Amino acid sequence: MPLNEEISAAIRPIIEASGNYLEELTITTAGKVKILTVIVDSDSHLNLDQVTAVTKEISETIEALPVLGDSTFTLEVSSPGLDRPLTKPRHWRKNLNRLAKVTMQSGSVIEGRIGEATESTVLVGDEKVSFEDIKRAVLEIEFK
Question: I need a labelling partner for 44 at 20 to 30 A (CA). Which of 20, 52, 94, 109 fits?
Answer without folding.
Answer: 109
